[in-house]
Amino acid sequence: MAKERRKNDRAKEKESEWQERVVQIRRVTKVVKGGKKLSFRAIVVVGNERGQVGVGVGKASDVIGAVRKGVADGKKHLVKVPLTKANSIPHPVNGVGGGAKVMMRPAAPGTGVIAGGAVRTVLELAGVRNILAKQLASGNPLNNARAAANALSSLRTFSEVAEERGIPLENLYG
């Protein structure tokens, strides 16, 4: 009976296309009347490596609970990322999240993900393989991850832009 249940759990894990990566776990202390109350904050990035990624935050009295809440929050805040054939982004873009700014530039095939910290995690789980990115103005992992998600959400493909302007795709390049 227990073996079957374990097999079913493993099968569900394999079915799940989402990958989760914990960016930061921080122990938070709140001073209350009776002393100090400990809790944990987890920053989690959730993605399917096929153009969808989300950043979530979870707070709980134990680490596992905080990560679980962070995953649920990340799935609520999913962003669709348009990828090119070279597994890069269609155009240069900047993003803002809190006090953090992130700059992203498309790169040639074979370049890899040139980014640091939380931005690298967001890009890898989004499925971007060739990109140049730089964190500016802040070292806060949560704000940097949110800035990266903001930048990715503002990306548009050439066909979308041509459709918005009401012109053929060929005229857009000229």
UniProtKB/TrEMBL annotation:
<dbReference type="GO" id="GO:0042254">
    <property type="term" value="P:ribosome biogenesis"/>
</dbReference>
<keyword id="KW-0687">Ribonucleoprotein</keyword>
<comment type="similarity">
    <text>Belongs to the universal ribosomal protein uS5 family.</text>
</comment>
<dbReference type="InterPro" id="IPR014721">
    <property type="entry name" value="Ribsml_uS5_D2-typ_fold_subgr"/>
</dbReference>
<comment type="function">
    <text>With S4 and S12 plays an important role in translational accuracy.</text>
</comment>
<comment type="subunit">
    <text>Part of the 30S ribosomal subunit. Contacts proteins S4 and S8.</text>
</comment>
<dbReference type="GO" id="GO:0005737">
    <property type="term" value="C:cytoplasm"/>
</dbReference>
<dbReference type="InterPro" id="IPR018192">
    <property type="entry name" value="Ribosomal_uS5_N_CS"/>
</dbReference>
<dbReference type="InterPro" id="IPR000851">
    <property type="entry name" value="Ribosomal_uS5"/>
</dbReference>
<dbReference type="InterPro" id="IPR020568">
    <property type="entry name" value="Ribosomal_Su5_D2-typ_SF"/>
</dbReference>
<protein>
    <recommendedName>
        <fullName>Small ribosomal subunit protein uS5</fullName>
    </recommendedName>
</protein>
<keyword id="KW-0689">Ribosomal protein</keyword>
<dbReference type="GO" id="GO:0015935">
    <property type="term" value="C:small ribosomal subunit"/>
</dbReference>
<dbReference type="GO" id="GO:0019843">
    <property type="term" value="F:rRNA binding"/>
</dbReference>
<feature type="domain" description="S5 DRBM">
    <location>
        <begin position="18"/>
        <end position="81"/>
    </location>
</feature>
<dbReference type="Pfam" id="PF03719">
    <property type="entry name" value="Ribosomal_S5_C"/>
</dbReference>
<keyword id="KW-0694">RNA-binding</keyword>
<comment type="function">
    <text>Located at the back of the 30S subunit body where it stabilizes the conformation of the head with respect to the body.</text>
</comment>
<dbReference type="InterPro" id="IPR013810">
    <property type="entry name" value="Ribosomal_uS5_N"/>
</dbReference>
<dbReference type="GO" id="GO:0003735">
    <property type="term" value="F:structural constituent of ribosome"/>
</dbReference>
<dbReference type="Pfam" id="PF00333">
    <property type="entry name" value="Ribosomal_S5"/>
</dbReference>
<keyword id="KW-0699">rRNA-binding</keyword>
<dbReference type="InterPro" id="IPR005712">
    <property type="entry name" value="Ribosomal_uS5_bac-type"/>
</dbReference>
<dbReference type="InterPro" id="IPR005324">
    <property type="entry name" value="Ribosomal_uS5_C"/>
</dbReference>
<dbReference type="GO" id="GO:0006412">
    <property type="term" value="P:translation"/>
</dbReference>
